[in-house]
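Work Package 3 (structural annotation) set out to generate three-dimensional models for the target panel prioritized at the project kickoff. During this period the team completed the workflow that converts sequence records into C-alpha cells, so that structures can be stored uniformly alongside our sequence database. As a representative example, we reproduce one entry of 591 residues exactly as it appears in the project archive.
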Amino acid sequence: MNEFRSHNCDELNASNNGDFVKLSGWVHRVRDHGGILFIDLRDHYGFTQIIADPDSKAFTEVETVRAEWCIKIQGKVRLREPSLINKKIPTGEIEVFIHQLEVLGHSDELPLPVFGDQEYPEETRLRYRFLDLRREKLQKNMLLRSNIISSIRKRMWGMNFHEFQTPIITASSPEGARDFLVPSRLHKGRFYALPQAPQQFKQLIMVSGFDKYFQIAPCFRDEDPRADRSPTDFYQLDIEMSFVEQADVFNMVKPIIMGVFKEFGTGRTVDEEWPLITYKDAFSRYGTDKPDLRNPIEMQDVSVHFVDSGFAIFSNLLKQEGTQIRAIPAPTGGSRKFCDRMNSFAQNEGLPGMGYIFWREGVSGVEAAGPLAKNIGADRTEAIRAQLGLKVGDAAFFLGGKPKHFEPFASKARVAIGQELKLTETDRFAFAWIVDFPMYEENSENGKIDFSHNPFSMPQGGMNALDGDPLQVLGHQYDLSCNGYELLSGAIRNHDLEIMYKAFKIAGYSAEDVNKRFGGMVNAFKYGPPPHGGCAAGIDRIVMLLADESNIREVIMFPMNQRAEDLLMGAPSDLTNDQARELGIRVAVET
C-alpha cells in the first residue's frame, strides 16, 4: 500500500463499508457538531468526510487542525445515516472514522480562503496564486484547459498533422507588437528575441518539404494588457500546410474548432454555418472585425436621409469628404427611458450623446419621436424606419463622421444595446470568417504606409496588385471570430521572393532591409518554395470562452497582473552588477 493513500478522496463509496483506508489531502473545513468533529478532506480528485468523536484515539490531534493543513489519516469506512447522505459528491454515502492522523504540512493564517467563492483583490490572488489555484473554480478551469489541449492534439494527429517544436530564442522581426529582447553573453551588445509567433519557422518547415505542421506554441509579445489578452506570453495552436488555398484551410480548421466546442461547450449550441464576411462589411455592419453574431443587430448607412436635412449637425458633416451617418437599430428599444440610458452610456464613453428616433403608436398610425425626428420631419423618419425594417416599439441610434473615428464606439453601443434589450443569445457559439483584409494602412500622424496585419501574406492579385494604390490592396488574410472575440488569424503566405521584395518596399523596407531581417526566409525562397498557408488559434481565448470566463487570467495557471508583473515570482527583477558586467550592458534607470 502507498505510504500516503490507499484511495483518492473521490473513490470511496458504500461498497467500501468496513474497509480500513489511508487518505491524504488538505483540510477544506472543520466542523464541530456538539463535540463530534467533521473534516472535509480535499485532494485533486474530490472530497471525503472524515469524522472523529471523543472515543477516537486521534480526537485530540483532530482538534488542532486548521483549514488548508495538509494531513494524512487512517481510518475505517462506514455508511452514513440515510438522512445524512450527500448526493452531490461521489463519496456522499460514506464517511471515514479516524484512527490515526499525521500532519504533513502546517499552514499559516490564510491571506485568502480556499473554501467558497469570495472575491478577493487580484493583487492578493496573484501573489498567492498557489492558494488561489486550490479553489474549485480554478481547479476546474485548469483541468478544462488541459483536456482541451489534449483534444486538439488528438484531432490534429487524426488529420495527419505532425507536431514539431520551433526555437524559443530567435531573431527580432516585425510581427505587429514589441519584442521581448534577450541579451547575448557570448556576443556582447547583440540581442536575441523571444518569438512573437513561430511564423517564419513554420514557413521554413513547409519549404523543407513537410506537408502538415502544427504546434501548441508559446508566443511572446510585449503588449498592453486587456481582459482577453495576456501582456507577456500566450499559447496558440499553430498550423501550416503546403499546396493549399484559403478554402482548404477553412475546411481543415472548421471540424477541429467545432469538435472542440461541441465537446466542451456544456450544452451550449455551436453554429454549423460559419458565414464569410469581408473585412469592409464587418466594420460597416458591426463596427468591428470580430463581430458577435449572437446579437442580430446590424448597422446600416442612412446618410441619404440626412443630406440637406433639418438636422444641421449631420447635414453639415455630410458635406465633408469621407463622412457617413450610420444607424444602429434597437428592436423593442422604443422608449424614451431606454434612449436616455443609451445616451448616458455614450456620455460615459466620452461622447456628447447619440441621436435617436423611436417609433410609437400615434393618432394616425406609426409616429416617430425624439429630437432627431422633430428636426428631419415625418417623411425622412418614415424612410429610415422602412430601410431599417423597424416597427412600433422599436428605436434607432445614429452616429456620424468618418467611420474609422466612430466605429469603435458604434461596436460597443451595438453590444450594449443587444445586451440591454436581451437580444443577444447567451447559450450559443456563433462563428464567422472575416476575409479580404487590407494589406496596408496609412499612419494618420506621418502618412507613412505600413502593413496593417501579417507582412508575410500573399496579396490578392499577386505582383500586379502592388502596382496601384497600396490602400486598395487586399491580402489573402483571414480571421475567425466567435462571440465577439478574435479566435484565429491566418493567411495564404507570400512564397514568391520578388513579390515579397515589392510588398515590403511599399511599406518602406529596402531589399537590403528584407535580406537583413529575414535572411533565413529569403535564402529558403530561392530553392523551390511551395505555395503554403495556415493559421494560429489562441488557446487561452478558446479556453476562456469554453470556461465562460470574461478575463483570460482565470484560465492561465500563473498569469501576470495588469502591469505585466509576476507578483508570485517577483518578475521583472533588477539586474545585478555581476550579471550586467557579464552581459556587457549598462542599465539606465529612469528617475
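The longest helix spans residues 136-158.
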